[in-house]
Amino acid sequence: MVPNTDKGRRELRLLSKSTTLHPRKGLVPFAEEVVLSAYPHPACLPVKHHQNYIMKKRVYYNPVIGDKATLLKSAEETNGEVTLLEVVVNAGGGNILHRHVDYAEKFEVLEGDLTVTLKAEKRILRPGDVAVVPANTLHCFNNFSKHPVKFLVQFNPAQPGFERAIAIGYGLAADGLVDKRSIPRDLRHQALLFTMSGMVPSGFGKLLVPLLRLIAATSRRVKRELINRYC
């Protein structure tokens, strides 16, 4: 196995000038194909994986919904093994049913009550409780209590794209570029956050996935601008 390090990547690019067929990118250099395989999904790749990728900020606050996220361990720091966040969700907050195709997610409650839905089963987690969501499994989390809930969420393997999506999404909220549900008003921003986070919604939202991926693929300049501004 090729080591997941910058040195390993430079060595890989010197191995061969031949090409191979990538399922999403078409013909790419063979060395690039090997590098991409170390990541769960091309949409989650950092623009350039080197020391400058280290996130400039560690704490993100969303003034629209009042949620807060603190990056405790990043993909860069753990050599791609885990992403670990501490999250505070206000009363009534949460997300919709979705799945992550390429990575597992673990919740551990620190304060308050968190309702985690795994497929059709709902479970209320209290301090010390843990729930693990396997990859490609429908799930969501909600705070149905009257008080904020604080919990840890861990992704395996690490998700640099999700780390950036949190920074960008909360940054857009702070700049007043989202609606009252904290959804970006710009469709390009929506598409980029969707692909970077690696989330696939259920129900009707699933039908929009091809369109969002297409929009994201044609918004690379906007992606660079968002990363430079918020990450």
Residue-averaged pLDDT: 82
Number of strands: 13
In one word, what is the shape? globular
Structural class: alpha+beta
Q: What is the alpha-carbon Rg in Å?
A: 18 Å
Poorly predicted residue ranges: 1-52
Written as H for each helix and E for each strand, in order along the chain, the element string is: HEEHEEEEEEEEEEHHEHH
Task: Characterize the biggest β-sheet.
Answer: 6 strands, antiparallel
> Briefly, what CATH class of the largest domain?
Mainly Beta
The domain tally reads 2
β-sheet strand percentage:
25-35%
**What is the helix fraction of residues, given as a range?**
25-40%
Provide the CATH architecture of the largest domain: Sandwich
CATH topology of the largest domain: Jelly Rolls
